[in-house]
Write a structure and sequence with these properties.
Blueprint lengths: L18 E4 L2 H5 L6 E5 L4 E9 L3 E8 L4 H6 L5 H20 L12 H23 L4 H9 L5 E7 L2 E7 L27 E6 L6 E6 L4 E7 L8 E10 L5 E6 L2
Parallel strand pairs: 3-5
Antiparallel strand pairs: 1-2, 2-3, 4-10, 5-6, 6-11, 7-8, 8-9, 9-10
Helix pairs in contact: 3-4
Length: about 260
Amino acid sequence: MIDLEPRLSNGISKSDVLQLEIVSDKQGQRGDVRDVLAIRSLQKWEIGISAKNNHRAVKHSRLSNDIDFGEKWLGVECSKNYFSEIKPIFDELAKLRTASKATQKWSTLGDYHSSVYIPILNAFKKELIKLDKENSGIVAQRLIEYLVGNKDFYKVIKGKNKVEIQAYNLHGTLSLPFENIKPKLKIQKLKLPNRLIEIVYQNNSQTTLLMSLNEGWQISFRIHNASSRIESSLKFDVNLVSAPHSLFVNHLSVD
């Protein structure tokens, strides 16, 4: 990291102190996925690190009757048609939950993938395509910024006997020089998408949508119930399937 970020080890004076700060969970809800910040206040500079342990998920989000994912994720409200499609399904789940005092399990519904998951995913898919068409050039970029991160950051993924470091330089704030000291490796700025290409079901899956965007971005959305008991909302496990080829990746072996 010191090779990539000269400001970590170089200050302008003795009072230019490097601070480390843990980021609150509230920031993550606003699209800031960083867990730890390294800050030099005198330089008005900071970098962030997102730390993961054996998983590559980018963000967990929910769908429900009262969650406007368009407004929350993209700053663009979902249509009334979207809510009219999902409302009967979530209303029925809420009714079952209330009647059973939150004890009834999903397994009692039989093929709930067909009766619940697929209609919700279809409505979600249709609405995203609609929002992208109505807000050309905006939705794709905002989606990546919300799901991947709206602040530049390093992602550190701990695996078995190895650590992977990825650099998400979306806005060009990583790998900056300090005065005449340049980073040993220059991290390229990643191109954000401006177009949604397609959304399709993953092969042989009733629970996962694959979204392809231009500039090499692809995201998977796997819908699931977070509990064995029926709830009136559903959760997304969102993963970055592919990123632009210019994404900086480094692997370190750990004994």
